């Protein structure tokens, strides 16, 4: 665990929201179990950034937006293959709120993603077209924060996409796996771990 006096490091807390926790619309098994550890990591870091999935109703990533499609299938959109999800993290709903136990008020920045109706956004850094930025990289660079620790939901989607982009952008990147949980859709968890290791992401058990 990083010491609280590491002033050049940011903790990035990915999507610890009600819809990704048990009882939510896109629940990740054990998603709520990570909250106490995430809170300890928040307390141990001088700089904290949160991401928040923030979809408009009828988002293009929702299976319900495509006739005849079911959740967890996939379709081709203008920017590539898109997994279709149950409606989740809709703007202004309880499902989009942070988990009630998350000590999130220390966050210096909240990055909302997925708010463009026609494109999904897993990564904290880019939309799923891999080129439209969220602005997080510029923020971190201007704040002098080249070292990142990532935690949250889900390991094999938003956490992994964020970690891979962080490495691609030149940030020293660590993922605390104990403070993450995965969806593991068709072997996606092992694939994500392998890809992160290959990219130079430090995976802490």
Care to describe what's here?
It is a single chain. Helix 1 links the parallel strand 1 and strand 2. It contains four helices and eight strands. It is an alpha/beta fold and 205 residues long. It is 20% helix and 22% strand. It has a six-stranded parallel beta sheet with strand order 5-2-1-6-7-8. Helix 3 packs parallel to helix 4.
Rg (C-alpha, Å): 16 Å
Average pLDDT number: 95
- Strand percentage lies at 15-25%
End-to-end gap = 11 Å
The dominant shape is: globular
Instruction: Compute the number of strand runs.
Output: 8
Strand-pairing-aware structural class = alpha/beta
How would you spell out the order of helices and strands? EHEEEEHEHEHE
Number of helices: 4
**What is the share of helical residues?**
10-25%
Strand order of the largest sheet: 5-2-1-6-7-8
Q: Poorly predicted ranges (pLDDT <50, ≥5 residues)?
A: 1-5
Largest sheet: 6 strands, parallel
GO molecular function: nicotinamidase activity
Family: Belongs to the isochorismatase family.
EC number: 3.5.1.19
Protein name: nicotinamidase
